[in-house]
Fold this protein.
Amino acid sequence: MNIRLSLLYVLAGLALAATHVQAESLVNGSAEAGKARALTCGACHGAEGVSSNPMWPNLAGQNAPYVLAQLKAFKDGDRKDPLMSAQAMMLSDEDMANLAVYFESLPAAAQAVADENLLDRGQSLYRGGNLEDKTSACLACHGPTGRGNPAAAYPALRGQHAAYTAKQLNDYRDGARTTGSKVHMMQDIAANLDKADIAALSSYVQGLK
């Protein structure tokens, strides 16, 4: 195992241990206020943070630091989407923190893998990566069950719609989406994934619980 992969596994282990100890959200916000502010969000993301359209992400159970970072990115223009950019422009910093804490408090969606025929390939890539092209295993940052890493604002992937995950991976690979940092971790990883890899990974994470 190369040094980069070893370091990622160590960091992931420490972060996962920390999340078990951390009982409260890492974001200072009010879930109650967030629930009231989330009425508009429900039109796309569902009343309980689980969207009916597979191209729109589930937000239920997503860690608050990641939700907050994405809302700020949409508002600042670092991440672009016609619908989300317009919605984020109307949010104050307090609104964003409250929404992040609210969605984090909801139970995550529970779904099955999208395609059983892709299970072995998806599981292999998620858990072991690809040593030939040095692609890191997804679990190094997102955890063995896809719960993410709140301390690093790495998103939870469990139960996320396969179609949405596939679009994000394709956007990272094609340069349509960036991480908004100098690390470019997701772009580098996605660059080594072909269409079949992306389909398998997206199917697999949809079934994580």
Notes: The chain is about 50% helix and 0% strand. The CA atoms of residues 149 and 201 lie 18 Å apart. The first helix runs from residue 3 to 21.
